[in-house]
Design a protein that fits this description.
The protein is of the alpha+beta class. The chain has a single domain, classed as Nonspecific Lipid-transfer Protein, Chain A, CATH 3.30.1050. It contains 3 helices and 6 strands. Strands 1, 2, 3, 4, 5 and 6 form a 6-stranded mixed sheet that branches. A hairpin with a 2-residue loop joins strand 2 and strand 3. The radius of gyration is 14 Å and the shape is globular. It starts with 9 loop residues before the first helix and ends with a strand.
Amino acid sequence: MDAKIRQGTAAWFDMVGQTMCEAALRAELAPDLNLTLIERYTDGIELADGLIQGLRFDIIDGRPSFRSGARRDEQGDIIIQITAAAARELNLLHNADPQYPKSLERVLRTVKCRWMAISR
């Protein structure tokens, strides 16, 4: 994580989206794969044009793209809703950190984070 990019800013979501796109390109996804992931901060502030803190990540015909910011009512195949504080807490930990699973479990248990997958 680049310490110069403040978590939760448009630049942060740009960095996350670019990283996700790069990983998807390296994965050589199936050309018929279509998926939309929405992450939004439930208490998110507006970034611009009615978009709040979060991002939309799409894979259309195996090609990834993203948009920084999410709409409050935006739908996708996978939806992650999390408070800014919970996102910050989890982003400060590496997923190999022994504290990460405990923090994630606590965040999910206290409803600071919800996720759902919608099958098509």
